[in-house]
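Thread: sanity check for a docking pose with zinc ion

Original post by kr_44:
Hi all, I'm comparing my docking run against an independent structure prediction. Below are the sequence and the ligand SMILES. Could someone generate the full complex and paste the structure tokens? I mainly care about where the ligand ends up relative to the chain.
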Amino acid sequence: MSFKSSKISSFRLWGLLLTMAGMGMMILGTAGIVFWGHSGKIVAAIGLVIGLIAMLGSLAVYFWAGILSTSAVQLECPECHKLTKMLGKTDRCMFCRTILTLDPEQANITADELEANQSATLH
Ligand SMILES: [Zn+2]
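Reply from moderator J.T.:
Ran it for you. Here is the predicted complex with zinc ion included:
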């Protein structure tokens, strides 16, 4: 997976991956019955259990992402001027993936400086 996306986006990606893995396991398990007949039922049972756990896991990830996004700070991105959400003190913009920070010590450029730079290059 890409680490260059915002935290909320990567949570959603993991949730989706877990859901797909869970469904895949259930389908494979059911296919086990078709291919191996009676003995395939054990494979099917294991597949269903693992699939169910993966699905529950994805639900937990989605739930967690939901809680996190309510506590996320909403702000206008200084780079692309779209409304984005950030988690914690440092996160990436959901649209242009610029690294944003609320910590003045970690920032190497302020929003005002960026604004000044942008208007300087435009003119
Ligand atoms: Zn942006």
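The chain has two domains: 7-70, 73-122. Hope that helps with the comparison, let us know if your pose agrees.
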